[in-house]
Design a protein that fits this description.
With 117 residues, the protein is an alpha+beta fold.
């Protein structure tokens, strides 16, 4: 859950000129929901990384609005996890929806590969 403030508007994200909830912040909230939704499925030392985002931002939310996101795991294909995500405002209006894909990785191996690049 997030409260829309001057810190998460389109102006702050440099993604627009209006003081409304920015799409990048909504997507981040949705990604956070996907991480929570799959946390219990992961083995020790594993995490997930985002690999695909397909989101529509359907309704503006002004400063002072509470927004939330829910993620439902809808497909597991090996280490690829596909989630349906939805974001709502405090009046339960859908403000955004779509799919996010994440990939299960070993944290240590992943970071080791990053350091060797």
């Amino acid at each position: 859950m997030a409260l829309v403030s001057s810190e998460n508007t389109a102006v702050k994200a440099h993604s627009g000129s209006l003081e409304v909830y920015a799409t990048p912040f909504m997507i981040a909230l949705m990604e956070k929901a996907t991480c929570s939704a799959c946390e219990s499925l992961l083995d020790e030392g594993e995490t997930t990384v985002g690999i695909s985002v397909n989101i529509s931002h359907d309704k503006a939310s002004g400063i002072g609005t509470l927004v939330s996101a829910q993620a439902t795991l809808c497909e597991v294909d090996g280490r690829k996890l596909t989630f349906e995500v939805i974001a709502k405002d405090d009046k339960q209006n859908i403000i955004g929806k779509g799919t996010i894909e994440r990939f299960v990785v070993n944290s240590e191996r992943f970071m080791s590969k990053m350091e060797s690049m």
